[in-house]
Amino acid sequence: MGFRTKQIHAGVTPDPLTGAILTPIYQTTTYVQPSVDEYLAKGYSYSRSANPTVRALELKLADLEAGADCCCFGTGMAAIQGVMLAFLNAGDHAIISDVAYGGTYRLCTKVLSRFGVEFTFADTSRPEDVATAVRDNTRLVLTETPANPTMKSSDIAAISEIATRAGVVHAVDNTFLTPYFQRPLELGADVSIHSTTKYMDGHNATVGGAVICKTAEQDEAVRFIQNSTGSIMSPQVAWLTMQGCKTLSIRMDQQSTNAMAIARFLEAHPKVEQVSYPGLESFPQYELARRQASGFGAMLWFEVGGGLAAGKRLMDSVELWSLAENLGSVESLITHPVTMTHADVEEAERQRVGIIDGLVRLSVGLEDAEDLIAALGQALEQV
To answer: How far apart are CA 168 and CA 161, in angstroms?
Structure first.
C-alpha cells in the first residue's frame, strides 16, 4: 500500500461490536479476564501495559515507519527517555547531536549524567566526528535531523554504518520530517523517534511521543521501560493523534510548499541577514537533504539585521504568526529558541553550535502563504 493509504487504514479495523469506522476510545483502567487459566486471552490486563486505542496508533505508526513495532509515550521527551533507558546503563556512553531540542540536552546533562551515563555532543553533520567519538563503552548514537532549531542535517545512512560496525544502536529523532518525508529505518537506523505532539497530531491538541524500532527485540527493550516507568499515552490522546495522522501527507505537502515560498521571500528581503531552510540551494547540506528525504519540511529560521533586539521587536509585533512553543501545527508559529525552547542550554554551548541570540524559528502552517508573507513583511518594516 502507498503511504497515503496506510496513513488512513493501517492499524485500524471497524469496531467488531458496532461496525464503527473509527477505533473506539477504550477509556478503561482494567480488563475482566475469563478465568485464571485464560489470563490475557484477549491481550489486555491493565491499561498501563496496553490499551486497544493506543495499540491501534502504535500499529499505524509502525507501518508508516516500516518498523517491527511502536511504543507510544505520554510526551516526546518520555519517548527520548524511553530510548535512553532501554539502551544505556551506568557507565555507558552515548553520542548525541550537538544541535538538538533543549529538552534532550537537559535530560542528558542534568538527569541521566547523575546516574553515571556519559555523553558526547558531536557534530553529527560530520560522520567522521561520530566515528571519532565512538568509545568502547558507547551504546547509543542519537541523531536529530534536521536539527532543532538550526536545521543542520546529518547523513543517516553514513552514521548508521558507523554505528553498525561498532555494535551501537542508532536512533534518529524524525519529528521534523515525519515518515512521509524521511524514513530513518530504511536508511539503516535502528530506531525512529517522534514527538507526536507535532506533525502527527498537527492541531495543537495533544502531547505525546512514539518510538518505532527496527527489530522486535529492540521494541521489547523500549516497551519494558514504557511499562516500568508508566510513561504511557492516554487513549484520548491516541485517538486524536490517529485522526491527525490521516491527513499527515496533505498537511506536510502544503506546509512544505508554504515554507519554501516564505524562505525565498526572507532570503531576498534586505532586512534579513541569513535564512536556513533545507529546500534553499544556499542551505549548506542541500544535496544531502534532497538525497535522504522526499521533502524539505515546514521548519526554518532566519536572523534579522539588528540582531536580538530587532528579532524581539519582530516577534512581539508580527500578526497572524502566534508567538508560542511547539511546532508542526496547522497554525503558523514563531519562536525565539534562546529564551523558549533552548533556554536550558548554556550560552557558550548555544553559541558554539550556532543557536544565536537573534535566531527566529518559524513553524509554517496551512494559512495562505501570501498572508503569512505579508504579515512578516509588515513586521520587518517596523524593525
So the answer is: 10
CA–CA distances in Å: residue 127 to residues 20, 35, 143, 170, 260: 49, 55, 11, 13, 28
Q: Is pTM, for the whole model, over 0.85?
A: yes
Identified catalytic residue from 92, 155, 173, 201:
173
Identify the active-site residue in 44, 55, 101, 219: 101
110 belongs to the catalytic site: no
Whether 48 is catalytic: yes
Nearest one of 198, 152, 170 to 96, comparing CA atoms? 170
How big is the CA angle at 335 (ends 333 and 339), to the nearest 5 degrees? 155
Give pLDDT tens digits for 20-78. 999 999 999 999 998 988 888 888 999 999 999 999 999 999 999 999 999 999 999 99
| Domains of the chain and any CATH numbers | 3-245 (3.40.640.10), 248-381 (3.90.1150.10)
pLDDT tens column, 338-347: 776 665 677 6
Which one of 4, 6, 48, 290 is the catalytic residue?
48
Clarify whether 214 is annotated catalytic: no
Q: Which candidate in 198, 214, 251, 350 is catalytic?
A: 198
Question: In a 10 Å sphere around its CB, with 0-12 CB exposed, 13-18 middle and 19+ buried, how is residue 122 labelled?
Answer: buried
Residue 246 annotated to the active site:
no
Instruction: Please name the residues in contact with 24: beta carbons below 8 A apart, sequence gap of 6 or more.
Output: 15, 52, 53
